[in-house]
Specification:
There is one protein chain. This protein is of the alpha+beta class. It has four domains: about 15-75, no CATH class; about 80-190, 2-Layer Sandwich (Tetrahydropterin Synthase, Chain A), CATH 3.30.479.30; about 200-260; about 275-305, no CATH class. Helices cover about 50% and strands about 25% of the residues. The protein is built from nine helices and twelve strands. The protein has helices at about 10-35, 115-120, 125-130, 130-145, 150, 155-175, 190-255, 260-270, 290-295; strands at about 35-40, 45-50, 55-60, 60-65, 70-75, 80-85, 90, 100-110, 180-190, 280, 285, 300-305. Strands 6, 7, 8 and 9 form a four-stranded antiparallel β-sheet that branches. Strands 3-2-5 form a three-stranded antiparallel β-sheet, with helices on one face. Strands 10-11-12 form a three-stranded antiparallel β-sheet.
């Protein structure tokens, strides 16, 4: 039996090939459409590049059109960023004491209006924009202006380093291109010899302060003892004065009350009943002792004449 159709005819294969062709075409269309737009997120700006040529106009955040396969939009981070330096930086104080700084973190921010300039002029700006060399130079310059005491105070050192670094960046890139928001210097240590000197100085200071406290205590105690003695002496003097005044007042009252009759009465009250042993006038004294003892009838009377 003869076949009445061409054996090479394959309708199913043609349909498959046609379907694949349509799929490829749709994929190409989607790819082209996808390359027509670029999304720049919040906190970023875009830099438009056309065949390697960087546009000076910054692309703002949002959906932005670009020519597919001809233009590209690169994102630049304009948020606050931290860059850390783990290497130890050696510096000197104004007294030429060697000090070592480590664990340094710099927080910086790229101006959105300068994103295109940064991308075009700074090689590997993500790592080299704020370089370790600039940070090291700022720390060394600041440290030389400070005493050993101040150089270890973060409240004093970090603002100085921040300003030094900002000045260096302004000189290198221009004003308001990169802003330094904060610098953190976690560790600052001296060499072993200076640490020993500091320890000795602290011990001497503590001994001095202890002695000062003891001296102050002794002075205060002596002053208190003197005040107590003064108070006691004043009290005794006041008591004596009060007693003397009372006696004087009593004597005044007594003197005012001693009349002749009172004195005569006191003399009588105090008389023990004994007569005087002698009697007489001026120039003549009579011893009446014998007379008193023998009675009134005795004729014996002794007389003494001067």
């Amino acid at each position: 039996m003869r076949k009445d159709y061409d054996e090479t005819y394959d309708p199913k294969g043609k349909k498959t090939a046609k379907l694949i062709g349509w799929v490829v075409l749709v994929a190409l269309i989607l790819l082209v459409i996808g390359n027509c737009f670029s999304v720049v997120p919040t906190g970023y700006t875009g830099v438009r590049i056309t065949f390697g040529q960087i546009s000076n106009t910054v692309v703002q955040n949002g959906i932005n059109f670009k020519i597919p396969f001809v233009q590209d939009i690169v994102q630049v981070n304009n948020k606050q960023q931290d860059i850390s330096f783990q290497n130890t930086i050696s510096a000197e104080t104004n007294e030429r004491n060697e000090v070592y700084f480590s664990d340094i973190t710099v927080t910086y921010q790229i101006s959105s209006s300068k994103s295109a300039w940064i991308y075009a002029n700074v090689s590997d700006y993500r790592n080299n924009l704020v370089s370790e060399g600039l940070v090291s130079s700022a720390i060394k310059s600041s440290s030389k202006t400070l005493s050993p005491t101040d150089v270890t105070s973060r409240n004093i050192l970090e603002p100085l380093v921040k300003q030094e670094l900002q000045d260096s960046l302004n000189e290198k890139y221009g004003q308001e291109v990169v802003t330094i928001n904060k610098i953190v210097i976690s560790n600052a240590t001296f060499d072993e010899e200076y640490n020993n000197k500091i320890a000795q100085k602290q011990q001497a200071q503590m001994a001095y302060e202890t002695q000062q406290i003891e001296n102050k205590t002794a002075v205060e105690k002596a002053a208190a003892d003197a005040q107590v003695k003064k108070t006691n002496a004043q009290a005794e003097a006041d008591a004596l004065m009060i007693k003397s005044q009372a006696e004087a007042d009593a004597n005044k009252l007594l003197e005012a009350s001693l009349t002749e009759n009172v004195l005569r009465k006191q003399l009588i009250d105090k008389w023990d009943g004994q007569l005087p042993k002698v009697s007489g006038t001026a120039g003549t004294i009579f011893d009446i002792t014998g007379y008193a003892s023998e009675g009134k009838n005795s004729d014996t009377v002794s007389a003494y004449t001067e």
